[in-house]
Specification:
Layout (H helix, E strand, L loop, with lengths): L1 H11 L8 H11 L1 H13 L2 H6 L5 E16 L4 E20 L1 H69 L4 H36 L24 H11 L1 H21 L5 E13 L8 E13 L7 H68 L4 H35 L5 H8 L5
Antiparallel strand pairs: 1-2, 2-3, 3-4
Helix pairs in contact: 1-5, 2-5, 3-5, 5-6, 5-8, 5-10, 7-9, 8-9, 9-10
């Protein structure tokens, strides 16, 4: 029984020099490919503003050209055939004076940058959730493995007792075979539990981009988890629909789509540009029989009024309107979705807290049951099989209690994510529940 107690304690309590949840998260921030892609997308979106602002700045080009000319002239001023070269080079500049689309393009770029910032926050929030989920999966798998190993030790002791009793004639071969069958079943469960632990570790290692060679910090018992405050589901639903990052992202999408409609409608708006150039031209000859070398400077205004664009502007505007309708529907969908997720998470937390209390009571009851069964075995009113069943029930009660704790912690974290913005301090609060 000392071996059984040691296995249960080592499975459910923490170990020194362990990697904790915060260590895993910080490694994931540096190494996770999904979050890395989100950061790259964010940096990409930051370039849209200088691109849009460039439309307000002058455009200056250096232009040059060379031509070979072959001319046959027959006129009053010149006759005959001439071959000669000509070239020109110069600088041209255009400065926009009135282009309403440029102003809308800058507004659009700023909105897209805000959306990109929110997308990065969402990616970070999802990374926190994935980190906690995968971390708890490893702890849960380790707890399950500890439970199975505790059962295996109890069954092994029962098998040895059945063998001794059979040798001295106080038990039948049936008792020994029954214990052996139980041991074989538990051994198969142990293999499955080992595989589950390995799979969960592999998933966590994928998150951080490398092997985790140190044990994970485990739960520090006892754990005290409380119901959400305020304990009103409607309040949390309202917070979700007003403060959720998903709602913020969907609202950004609607505003951007609305701005794109205005941008496309301005495709037929008149524009005014200031233009200027200075060009040097040289020709070795001409149809008049003499060459030229001239330099010309020009400054002027250019008005452009689109009259017919082949229907492109109207089509793009209709497309933008449809996209706006789409984002409006997506906003309504996200609103309903986060409201439902908030309800589920709230109920999971409140139910989880109640389950933990119930499992703690059940654990106390199973301990008393085990003690009573052992006493009954000593006085002859209980069998060794009854003791084995009581030990198995105790191990399963511990496993179920830890499972309820993991589920409730995850539900509380999901509720925080759905109703606002997760920050590293939220993860620190959960990390404090672990043994350092």
């Amino acid at each position: 029984m000392i071996r059984l107690a040691f296995v249960l304690l080592s499975s459910f309590l923490g170990t020194a020099h362990a990697v904790d949840l915060l260590d895993i998260y910080r490694d994931a921030v540096r190494q996770d490919a999904q979050y890395g892609a989100a950061k790259a997308q964010y940096l990409s979106a930051q370039e849209r503003l200088p691109q849009a602002q460039s439309s307000r700045l002058p455009k200056i080009n250096l232009e040059a050209g060379y031509n070979y000319n072959s001319v046959d002239a027959d006129s009053t001023f010149s006759q005959g055939h001439r071959d000669f070269g000509s070239y020109e080079y110069g600088v041209t500049a255009t400065q926009s004076l009135y282009r309403k689309q440029n102003d809308i393009a800058v507004d659009l770029a700023q909105l897209e940058m805000l959306k990109a910032t929110t997308e990065l926050e969402v990616a970070n929030q999802r990374l926190m959730l994935r980190t906690l989920w995968l971390y708890s999966d490893v702890l849960r798998a380790r707890t399950n493995l500890g439970t199975v190993r505790a059962q295996k030790i109890a069954v092994s002791e029962q098998l040895e007792l059945a063998k001794r009793n059979f040798l001295v004639g106080t038990a039948t071969i049936t008792d020994q075979r029954e214990a052996q069958a139980r041991l074989d079943l538990v051994s198969a469960e142990e293999l499955a539990a080992k595989n589950d632990l390995r799979v969960s570790k592999e998933a966590l290692q994928e998150l951080v981009g490398g092997p985790i060679t140190t044990n994970l910090a485990l739960l520090k018992m006892p754990v005290t988890l409380k119901a959400p405050m305020p304990n009103d589901i409607d309040v949390w639903v309202q917070r979700a629909t007003e403060q959720s990052l998903e709602m913020t992202l969907a609202k950004h999408g609607v505003v951007i789509a609305q701005t794109r409609v205005e941008f496309n409608r301005l495709g037929t708006a008149p524009t005014v540009d200031l233009v200027g150039s200075i060009v040097d031209s040289f020709a070795g000859n001409s149809t008049f029989g003499s060459g030229s070398d001239t330099t010309a400077g020009v400054v002027g205004l250019r008005l452009r009024v689109p009259l017919f664009e082949g229907g492109k502007v109207k089509s793009e505007t209709r497309e933008a309107i449809s996209q706006y309708d789409k984002t409006s529907q997506e906003l309504e969908y996200v609103k309903r979705k986060v409201a439902q997720e908030a309800r589920v998470a709230f109920l999971d937390v409140t139910t989880g807290v109640a389950r933990i209390d119930a499992f703690e009571q059940a654990l106390s009851s199973t301990k008393l049951q085990l003690e009573s069964t052992k006493l009954g075995l000593e006085v002859g009113v209980r069998t060794a099989v009854d003791v084995l069943d009581a030990e198995t029930l105790l191990a399963e009660s511990r496993r179920d209690m830890f499972g309820a704790i993991y589920d409730t912690i995850l539900a509380k974290f999901r509720l925080q994510a759905i109703t606002g913005r997760l920050v590293e301090s939220d993860l620190v609060a959960i990390n404090n529940l672990l043994v350092k």
